[in-house]
């Protein structure tokens, strides 16, 4: 499977993250049915209870909805998906700033670098 | 959903002469779990497994499997992969399949054939001529093709290369049923810790830890493998 788990962090959190990314990237489309717990367990190579937990948390966050007999489906609320996208991006931002700080730079300097990098990309 | 203990031991102690192989082991194991039984060589893993399988009868303390004392019933619901080879030299893979089909009502020979095909094992192969890794795969095929309540796999991945390990995990995940429990003993934790619900650390015959794997990771910020190394640092 493509996901390289970091064994220091609970696996279910990493599965959640991966599914969130697939939702915001559109790999999973709104109203798509997500695979069964067992299929996901095999796909990710992890324990089915771990998948169960990840799906339950995603349901609680409103990114999945479960229909009692037919399974779990991807949420079709664009605002909810946009919020998820923002949360993921906020995590990246947080991580970036932490990295920048850890090598002795201020957040402001880090932001200047970001702007510069963005300008350079646009030129390409 | 069942909530009773599938395996329960109380104060289980096993002596070899004056050596204590197991010391006051009290365990509760529920259905529907994949459990890592972890410890270095000589920590008592195989002793515990042999007691559960009825291969060692002299011990003190109590053991219940699915509410039954060890006996014909408990043997019928446990599918056991021993850490040693138990086939005779003359046997071909297909002979072992037939023996399993005779011995166990819950053995699904069609499933076994399918798994063998996937693993590139041929029914006409002599078991004697298989490599260590091939034998391990073949034994795993046999035990996972039973519809058991409990699967006990003693060091199932020692002899196979890392690529085959993934495949073996895949087969375990694919073939145990949701209400059955898998107990897997190993000292190679890195490659397989992501499939565990719970881990049990055995050290010198005692349980030093029995925890939910995810909780342990969240609490320590470390992998099970790292925690293991800390507990067993020499």
Helix-strand layout with pairing:
The complex is a heterodimer of chains A (124) and B (234).
Chain A: H1 11-25, H2 37-44, H3 48-60, E1 64-67, E2 71-74, H4 78-102, H5 107-123
Antiparallel strand pairs in A: 1-2
Helix pairs in contact in A: 1-3, 1-4, 2-3
Chain B: E1 7-16, E2 19-29, E3 34-38, H1 45-52, E4 60-65, H2 72-77, E5 78-81, H3 93-103, H4 109-118, H5 132-144, E6 150-154, H6 162-175, E7 181-186, E8 198-203, E9 206-212, H7 213-220, H8 224-231
CATH superfamily of the largest domain in chain A: Winged helix-like DNA-binding domain superfamily/Winged helix DNA-binding domain
Largest interface: A-B, 17 and 25 residues
Give the DSSP E fraction of chain B (strand runs of 2 or more residues): 25-35%
Number of helices of chain A: 5
What is the straight-line distance between the termini of chain B? Answer: 42 Å
Shape of chain A: elongated
Helix content of chain A: 55-70%
Strand order of the largest sheet of chain A: 1-2
Global Rg of chain A: 18 Å
- Rounded radius of gyration of chain B (Å): 18 Å
Describe the structure concisely for a colleague.
The complex is a heterodimer of chains A (124) and B (234). By secondary structure, chain A is mainly alpha-helical.
How would you sum up this structure, described in words?
- The complex is a heterodimer of chains A (124) and B (234).
- Chain A contains five helices and two strands, in the order H-H-H-E-E-H-H.
- Chain A is mainly alpha-helical and 124 residues long.
- Chain A has two domains: 11-76, Winged helix-like DNA-binding domain superfamily/Winged helix DNA-binding domain (Arc Repressor Mutant, subunit A, Orthogonal Bundle); 79-123.
- Chain A has a two-stranded antiparallel ribbon with strand order 1-2.
- Chain A is elongated and about 55 Å long.
- The relative contact order of chain A is 0.11.
- Chain B has one domain (7-231): P-loop containing nucleotide triphosphate hydrolases (Rossmann fold, 3-Layer(aba) Sandwich), CATH 3.40.50.300.
- Helices cover 33% and strands 26% of the residues of chain B.
- Chain B has a six-stranded mixed beta sheet with strand order 5-6-7-3-8-9, sandwiched between helices. Chain B has a three-stranded antiparallel beta sheet with strand order 2-1-4, with helices on one face.
- In chain B, helix 5 runs parallel beside helix 6.
- The chains are: A mainly alpha (124), B alpha/beta (234).
- At the A-B interface, helix 2 and helix 3 of A face helix 6, helix 7 and helix 8 of B.
């Amino acid at each position: 499977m493509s996901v390289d788990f970091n064994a220091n962090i609970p696996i279910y959190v990493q599965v959640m993250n991966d599914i969130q990314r697939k939702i915001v990237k559109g790999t999973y489309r709104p109203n798509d049915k997500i695979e069964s717990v067992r299929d996901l367990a095999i796909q990710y190579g992890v324990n089915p209870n771990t998948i169960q937990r990840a799906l339950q948390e995603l349901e609680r966050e409103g990114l999945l909805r479960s229909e009692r007999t037919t399974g779990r489906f991807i949420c079709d609320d664009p605002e909810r998906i946009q919020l998820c996208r923002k949360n993921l991006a906020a995590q990246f931002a947080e991580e970036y700033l932490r990295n920048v700080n850890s090598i002795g730079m201020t957040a402001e300097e880090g932001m200047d670098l970001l702007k510069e990098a963005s300008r350079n990309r646009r030129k390409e | 959903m069942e909530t009773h203990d599938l395996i329960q031991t109380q104060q289980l102690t096993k002596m070899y002469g004056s050596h204590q192989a197991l010391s006051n082991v009290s365990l509760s194991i529920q259905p529907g779990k994949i459990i890592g039984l972890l410890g270095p060589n000589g920590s008592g893993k195989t002793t515990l497994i042999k007691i559960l399988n009825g291969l060692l009868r002299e011990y003190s303390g109590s053991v219940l499997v699915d509410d039954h004392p060890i006996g014909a019933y408990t043997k019928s619901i446990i599918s056991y992969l021993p850490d040693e080879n138990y086939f005779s030299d003359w046997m071909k893979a297909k002979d072992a399949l037939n023996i399993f089909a005779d011995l166990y009502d819950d053995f699904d020979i069609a499933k076994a054939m399918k798994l063998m095909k996937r693993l590139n094992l041929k029914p006409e192969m002599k078991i004697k001529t298989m490599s260590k890794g091939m034998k391990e795969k073949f034994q795993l095929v046999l035990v996972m093709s039973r519809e058991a309540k409990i699967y006990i796999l003693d060091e199932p991945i020692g002899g196979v290369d890392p690529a085959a390990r993934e495949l073996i995990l895949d087969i375990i995940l694919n073939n145990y049923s949701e209400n059955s429990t898998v107990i897997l003993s190993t000292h190679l934790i890195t490659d397989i810790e992501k499939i565990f619900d719970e881990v049990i650390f055995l050290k010198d015959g005692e349980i030093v830890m029995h925890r939910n794997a995810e909780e342990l990771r969240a609490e320590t910020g470390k992998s099970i493998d790292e925690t293991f190394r800390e507990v067993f640092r020499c």
